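Below is one protein, fold included:
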Amino acid sequence: MADIKKTERILNLVSFLFKVRGRRLVTWREVRETVAGYDDGGSAGTLRRRFERDKRFLETLGIELEYVQDASGEGGYRVRRDATLMPPISIGPGEEALLSALAASVPPRDTPFARHLQSALLKLRFDSPASPDVAEGLAGRILPAAACTEVGDAARLARLGTFGEAVALCRTVTFDYGGLENGPLRSARRTLDPYGLFARGSTWYAVGRCHSRDAIRTFKVDRIRGAIDWTSPGEGPDFAVPEEFSLEDHSNPDAWRRGEEAFEARVWFDPACFFRVARRPDARAGAPAPDGSGEATFGVSNADAFVRWLLSFGRHARVLSPPDLARRLAERVRATLAGYEP
């Protein structure tokens, strides 16, 4: 009989022990007669010392064996499951929702660590006790950004987890929110049916029906103050997502092009921004002035969304027409500045 190398012998022993694990004890005689590597004709003492050395080596690998006597007085070996095997992974709907989002945002396989991340996610998803159709049910309701690599502090992570669970289970939530209309130093209590989560850059947003507005609104997760609470003690669901709802429509930064209003807005941009705006396919830009500034005309269907977009330019943009749009922008700026007043 060919000699069995140590590595192969130990693998044979581990395979045999795990094969009968939990069904019965394994006697030393069974090991000697069944496991290749202990049946080479050596003396009983030699084989027993070999087995003891292999046991100690297995302990260095984290596989512990213990000798136990059953009710009849017969003794045998078994693997200590509590010291060897990891406890079952418990993944709830909230974690499942975020795993689905993370899986969707995994970079291409040719980027560093992508293969390892995909493998880890596959193992986690396999052990998840959540319903197998969770990911399918969340399709289109959690949209991570391609470059969303920043998670933030523990509080932000907890808020994302709560929103992920609320989206997955259709649970209504309530929270204190410091929006532009409230001012950064003030907050208002909001109740929301969260239809979805999306990320833009490294910022996460929750979209759903705001109860106080009775309309779909978008909330920046970073502006939430304190904890997010359920509105009901039950297990839900508290609402149904409308069939016509599309998270893509609300996650698109150019949401001002979707709505019932229809008018043209003429905006002046200074040299710091005009060259960038002029390249947009939805902007009809005129010739730049000698200093590089210029005017651009946009087709707008949602004035409030367009105002929010213009605010991102700060003092680098000014509405030329229509007057009502300029008034809305000025009111929003004043409301924002008022939030900083003592």
About this structure: The two ends are 89 Å apart (CA to CA).
